[in-house]
Amino acid sequence: MPIKVAILLLLFSFLSQEARPQENMGKEVQQESGEFNLSMTLGIGLFGPKEDIEDQMKASGFGDTRGPGWFSDEATQYPKAYNILIANIGATYYFKRTRGVSLVVGLTDNVQVDGYDEIGIGNRLHLKSEIWVASLNYVFRSSDKKHQLNIGPALFLHRVRDNAERPTSQKNNNVKPGLYAGYTLHVIHKEDWYLALNLNGRWATESAIGPFIIVHETGILLPEPEVQRSEFQPTKVQLTGLSLGLALGFRMGNGRS
Predict the structure, then answer these.
(1) Beta strand 86-96 with 207-209: parallel, antiparallel or unpaired?
(2) In this structure, is the dihedral angle defined by the CA atoms of residues 74, 228, 210 and 166, taken in order, positive or negative?
(3) DSSP conformation letters of 209-233
């Protein structure tokens, strides 16, 4: 809920600013059109499904402590979560100086959560969660072209898989409709290129994942080895979240000044 409120407040603030009279913009400038931008963004996801996956790891028994090993003298407490770099590309066409449409495609959240169940010689689970986005946005831009807000419908693909190399690895793929919005601030602004900070928000319904089952056998030299089985129970995780990144963009066509 706080994320959706933040998106709405950002949109209201930007539109209020745009609604003010702009004395330095004449009718001729406002009608400029034909500029095309192509950008690539690298960043990191914030919030999203990571905490829900961690909570379910603990609830499913994958929250144990692993003792010191060959390469470490310290015990490791699970679950452990890692944020991984995300990337997306965007293409924007401005039919007016301050208005345009854009298409954004790429990875908007990327995490791995590792769990450990101290059963037998230990069952380890490595869940990789990715949220891919494809979004068609309407774009609002300030008259100096240094501030931009985009908002529009989106399709999200949530992929979760056991990241370990084993024949029984399982995976989930869920497609969810939703809303995508972003704010861009140009920190370097040139006629042909720019460097910008991006803050993007997404909203979608929860995604169902699991089960993920890990097994191994102990006493394999005995007539009847014992099966050690651990299961990450089915659960729902939130897809709503934010991402923060640095974008490099190139400006082409008419009206770049």
Answers:
(1) unpaired
(2) positive
(3) E--EEEEEEE-TTSSSPEEEEEEE-
CA distances from 136 to 116, 139, 146 (A): 41, 10, 21
- Residues in the chain, how many? 257
DSSP letter string over the chain? -HHHHHHHHHHHHHHHHHHS--TT--HHHHT---EEEEEEEEEEEEETTHHHHHHHHHHTT-BPEEPPBTTBSS-EES-EEEE--EEEEEEEEEEETTEEEEEEEEEEEEEEEEEEE-STT-EEEEEEEEEEEEEEEEEEE-TTSSEEEEEEEEEEEEEEEE-S--TT--EEEEEEEEEEEEEEEEEEE-SSEEEEEEEEEEEE--EEE--EEEEEEE-TTSSSPEEEEEEE--EEE---EEEEEEEEEEEEES---
pLDDT in tens, 110-157: 999 999 999 999 999 999 999 999 999 999 999 999 999 999 999 999
C-alpha neighbours within 13 Å on the C-beta side of residue 94? 28
Q: What is the pTM of this model?
A: 0.87
Q: Which amino acid is at 20?
A: R
Burial class (CB in 10 A: 0-12, 13-18, 19+), 244: middle
Whether the predicted pLDDT of 167 surpasses 70: no
CATH of 2-11+34-253, picked from 3.40.1190.10, 2.40.160.20, 3.20.20.450, 2.40.50.180, is 2.40.160.20
With 0-12 / 13-18 / 19 or more C-beta atoms within 10 angstroms meaning exposed / middle / buried, residue 78 is buried
**Residue position matching structure tokens 């028994």:** 61
